[in-house]
Amino acid sequence: MQYQIGCDIGGTFTDVNAVDSAGGVHTDKAFTTPDNLAEGLIQALENLAHRLGTPLGELLAATTRFVNGTTVVTNSIAELRGAKVGLITTKGFGDNLLIARSARNAHRDHHKQLNLPQIVPRHRVVEVTERVDRTGTAVVPLTEAEARRAIGELVERGVEALAISLLWSFLNPEHEELLARVAAAEHPELFVSVSSRLHPVIREYERTMTTVLNSFTGLRVAEYTLRIEQELAERGLPVPVAFMQGFGGTLSASEARERPITLIDSGPAGGVIGAQALAQRLGIRDVVTADMGGTSFDVSVLQGSTPQVTQRVVLGEKFLTALSKIDVLPIGAGGGSIAWLDARGVPQVGPHSAGAVPGPICYGNGGTAPTVTDAAAVLGLLAPKAFLGGRRELSVEPAREALAREVGKPLGLDAQQSAAAVYRMVTANMSNAVRTVTVERGHDPREFSMIAFGGALGIFAADIARTAGIRRVVIPADAAVFSAQGLLASDDVRTQARSAMWSGGDAGPVAASFRQLEHDLVASLRAAGYADDRIDVQWQGDFKFAGQQWELTVPIPRRDDLSEADLAHLQAQFPEAYEAEYGKGTAWVGNPVLLMSVRVIATGRARPYQPVPAALPTEPPPVIASGTRRIHLPLAGRDTEVDIYDATALRPGAELAGPAVLEHPLTTIQVPPGWRLRADEWGNYVLTDTSKENAR
Q: Which of 220, 435, 569, 664 has the fewest CB within 10 Å, making it most exposed?
């Protein structure tokens, strides 16, 4: 037996999912260890090996693919904990990061219009005498002595990493390369990011910020990837570790160390890719993906089962970058999200989280702030002795006391009423996030199904869906570790963009840019072991109407003889593509259409092991409850006795009606009144809203 293993390291739990060569799926998890992420990973793998009844060394020795998704980059930016970065830029442009792109954000409250955190303080920004003009001509050459001076000054100021971003370097990288050579020769200990290598595209601020963040996160990613590789290799893993990227594909550890910023939000990306594979397997076209873990609730949309990719991503609600990644909306609504009262005495949930340490109060690990998980335990939705398959017993009474003290007493509520209020608030927050990615973007949620995963979401999924108007919810068989499973559905992907401005005339430079990008990316995949028949290549162009700030990405035919006529045809078709995205009448018809940049995506198609479906019986098999429990239904506002079912004992084709609770070793599923659940042949739990008020 051979295995492929996906591992998603989240803020609270580290999840592992193994698919064997016979199609069997095996899962487990452990608490994340923030001070040493490898420790939590090894513990999760030990748990998985124990479940399989085999030593960890034998499991790893039989592994043919290992994919990791990590929060290390996301956390580094959110916490502003990273390397001491020095920036080298063109003389006269040292205040680029300070000026940024005002206004800072979309808030109309001027009290919230705050300056951006300065990852690079002004004293660690050094300007160099050089200048390249808009044609790529070096009108003021950079001397080696000047390069040596700038780097030396930053080294004296104690920098650990360099970011090199000069004006117009995306057209002529000669000066940036000189700085990089000097740094490598004289200070090899420095981590160096070069903007013309990382993102050779116009827009100085976004290019510079991306380069700075790459250096800011570089040392932590280098330490993390090396430790993960070493720990796994020492325990017998014979294959290299692949790392998930935020736009939905994997890359090697060495490439991750060169471009660490691409690992941003890799865990949520794995969940979306997993949902895409599941939707295709079930024949579902339009999907809202929802992932609720211990720290956050992440929601995305698959229209036509295709993930939406955002260009020029804002990271941490602060830093506008040149990155591309899968469009995932995160909010601070996880199982560990803390319930609190603001200065007005109004109850709130999140965004602060109790995290893995100390975690919710009911974990008995020293937590003192009431959380969403504590509320679920007090409401009876979680069985104290069944949590994590019985590996940890929940302490409900301390959670009850904290909710009554911190939330209930100021509002005149008892513990159960406080828990119900927390439940309703976090459900409303998550429902609003679903509306944001559907209604506010022109989608009718009633036409979508929800694929709901993450260890905490099974309790809330049906209530969120009903509030948002969604009538079908699919909870995957291994919902609690589904993002880890999604990592295994991912291919090996390389992508790169380059400025190639064109409004008419000779298409030769545009075609040359495409060919060069394709050559470099395909070479990288070949080096990773992919044969040419396993490599797919896509060409894209970023077009806009003259005068607009943002571009729309459209596919471009891949051909060696790309001509002016081909690009002119795309220009003519652009208004139609624009209105398909933004609505009828939105195109600036008659305005010139400009091509700003080109992008190549090269994909090495992996060979993931596929789960095997079970045979469905001709008649639904009998369903027998394992017991009953009294719970409080927060949205209905009443207590009720409900049947409890062992989720693992539910056979394919089995059906049951709510209210009911299914207990799985790694998650809990609530079936509210008016919902019906069916177990399908893949082991998924499909919930359908049968209530009249939500029917179309």
A: 569
Alpha helices, H only, 235-365: 253-258, 266-282
Residue type, 164: I
- The CA angle 73-207-135, to the nearest 5 degrees, is 160
Cα–Cα distance for residue pair 376/358, rounded to 1 Å: 18
The tokens describing 512, both together, are 């040359």
Secondary structure of 24-75 in HEC code, one letter for each residue = CEEEEEEECCCCCHHHHHHHHHHHHHHHHCCCHHHHHHCEEEEEEECCHHHH
Q: Say how far residue 118 (Cα) sits from the centre of its chain.
A: 24
Burial, 439: exposed, middle or buried (Cβ in 10 Å; 0-12, 13-18, 19+)?
Answer: middle
- Written as one letter, the residue type at 136 is G
Cα dist. 291→295, 386, 496, 690 in Å? 10, 22, 29, 24
Tell me which H or E stretch contains 348.
strand 347-353
The total number of residues shown for the chain amounts to 696
State yes or no: pLDDT of 696 exceeds 60. Answer: no
Phi, psi angles (nearest 5°) of residue 334: -120, 180
Please state whether the predicted TM-score (pTM) of the whole model is above 0.85: yes
- What's the rounded Cα separation, in Å, for the pair 46 and 103? 49
- Give CA–CA dist 54/63, Å, rounded: 13
Specify the DSSP element, H or E, that contains 326: strand 324-326
> Which secondary-structure segment (H or E) carries 423?
helix 415-437
Contact call for residues 371 and 354 (beta carbons, < 8 A): yes
Say what the pLDDT of residue 106 is. Answer: 63
Would you state the torsion angle of the CA atoms of residues 466, 470, 472, 476, taken in this order, to the nearest 10 degrees? -90
> In this predicted structure, what is the pLDDT of residue 31?
86
The whole-number average pLDDT for the span 560-582 is: 92
For 299, half-sphere exposure in the C-beta direction (CA atoms, 13 angstrom radius) is 24
Quote the pLDDT of residue 132: 96
> What number of other Cβ atoms are within 10 A of residue 52's Cβ?
18
Q: 76-88 burial string, b = 16+ CB within 10 Å, else e?
A: bbeeeebbbbbbb
Radius of gyration of the chain from its Cα atoms, rounded to whole angstroms: 26
C-alpha–C-alpha distance, residues 462 and 449, integer Å: 11
Burial category of 688 from C-beta neighbours within 10 Å (exposed 0-12, middle 13-18, buried 19 and up): middle
Question: Over the stretch 195-238, which tens digit does the pLDDT of each residue have?
Answer: 999 999 999 999 999 999 999 999 999 999 999 999 999 999 99
